[in-house]
Design goal:
Length: about 325
């Protein structure tokens, strides 16, 4: 039997952990590597999603939640220290769908051993009582496969719904959309108290499934490479937000002076075109405001900056800068 390696990350920064996972997939060409990792408050969006369409940016900013794109497909999920992630990197044996089920089996086994009747749903989720407790995704790389999953053990479910609550009607794009599910924490199905550490131990026993494993030891070069991937990709706005499909956004707000409507086309995360309409009696042409926004990143702070020094009342009458920016950014 080929070697099995286990690595339990001590770091709770999602950008580090995703870089570690990518490094393990692309640099270790043999054996099975199992990673267990936890992130402090983070939203992880899928490879082919438009980040801005998936997250409630105001809630994310107010609650200091990290936002990062991963390299696998699927939808956006919320992580905190009550959520546990696992990654399995192994040889690709061909049929992706059956591998998906096979690779998620240790989680189902762990839950069943704890008296929870869990099952793998048709759409790559693990569910208990019809509620999703885990989402999974995978990606192929050369002759290897990465299968990973996030598990709601004792996470803040109100944060899950708040930060992923976005009015989809405001966006038109071909990006992959998340599939909203009813979610639950594993602790809610347990009769006795189990700590996260105990659960981690049980899951890793099932993932390793043999005594024949070693702890993966990383050296200085590995850490330097991981850090390089972390900085160039997972901490890079272009990857996390900019790498997006073109999207057209429509929003409107009412303010004391009337109604403002924003039609914004965003390409690669930047405003390609912005049209502002309303029933305001403009003293100056809004074209000047629209011009200022052209090329600006579709980011609240950048839009605020682009409008610095612009007397918005000259264009819209009685309106605050916050109201204009909130309209453009769909910030409630
Ligand atoms: N942490 C967590 N676990 C399970 N399900 C979640 C979680 N957070 C949100 N959700 C629910 O899943 C949907 C999105 O489901 P959807 O099916 O669209 O996407 C997924 O499941 C992707 C799973 C990715 C797993 C990776 C493993 C390591 S890094 S992230 C969301 O709208 C919520 O209803």
């Amino acid at each position: 039997m080929k070697n099995r390696y286990l690595y339990i990350s001590e770091v709770t920064d999602a950008t580090h952990n995703l870089a570690l996972e990518e490094y393990a997939l692309t640099h270790f060409s043999e054996g099975t590597i199992i990673l267990l990792w936890q992130n402090a408050k983070t939203i992880v969006v899928g490879r082919h999603q438009n980040t801005m369409e998936e997250i409630n940016q105001k809630y994310v900013d107010d609650h200091k939640i990290t936002v990062v794109r991963r390299m696998t497909g699927g939808g956006a999920v919320y992580h905190d220290l009550g959520n546990l992630n696992y990654s399995i990197i192994t040889d690709n044996k061909g049929d992706e769908t059956s591998q998906m089920k096979h690779l998620a089996a240790p989680l189902i086994d762990t839950l069943r051993q704890m008296g929870i009747d869990a099952e793998f749903s048709g759409r790559n989720d693990v569910v208990v009582d019809g509620k999703k407790v885990s989402g999974t995704a995978q990606r192929l790389y050369k002759n290897r496969i990465l299968h990973h999953g996030c598990i709601l053990f004792d996470a803040d479910l109100s944060a899950v719904s708040h930060c992923l609550n976005v009015d989809q009607a405001k966006f038109k794009s071909k990006a992959v959309k998340s599939v909203k599910s009813r979610v639950a924490n594993i602790v809610d199905f347990l009769d006795c108290k189990v700590s996260m550490e105990e659960f981690k131990g049980r899951l890793s026993d099932n993932l390793i499934a043999s005594k024949n494993y070693q702890y993966l030891v990383l050296n200085e070069t590995d850490y330097a490479n991981i850090s390089e991937i972390k900085i160039s990709r997972y901490q890079n706005w272009n990857w996390n937000y900019g790498e997006a499909m073109a999207t057209s956004i429509y929003n409107k707000v009412r303010y004391v002076g009337g109604k403002l409507e924003a039609n914004v086309d965003v390409k690669e995360g930047k405003i390609a075109r912005c049209k502002l309409l309303g029933d305001f009696m403009a003293r100056c042409s809004v074209a000047e405001v629209e011009r200022r926004l052209q090329g600006c990143r579709y980011v609240y702070e950048d839009i605020v900056e682009a409008l610095n020094g612009c007397h918005l009342s000259d264009y819209f009458g009685q309106i605050t800068k916050e109201e204009v920016v909130a309209c453009i950014c769909c910030r409630e």
